[in-house]
Amino acid sequence: MPPRWLFVRVETVDGFVGWGETTLEGHAEAIEGAFADLAQRFLGWDADGIEDIWQTAYRARFYRGGPVLMVGCIYPLPCLLVV
In this structure, what CATH number is given to the domain that contains residue 19? Predict the structure, then answer.
């Protein structure tokens, strides 16, 4: 059976690390791809700008409100960035 969850690691330039777990039943690869795209987008951004990152992730990528983006990527972002 394919993995049902994905662990995500976010590291700031200051060396702070945040870990999170996300899932979308049977679609871990889709979430992984979405996070890879978001990582490229937000590389170098201020990790304290959680609201800016959240809003940009929601409005600038993929299909707004879709399960991969919302459940798999955006909902875990604040937890990952509060380190």
Answer: 3.30.390.10
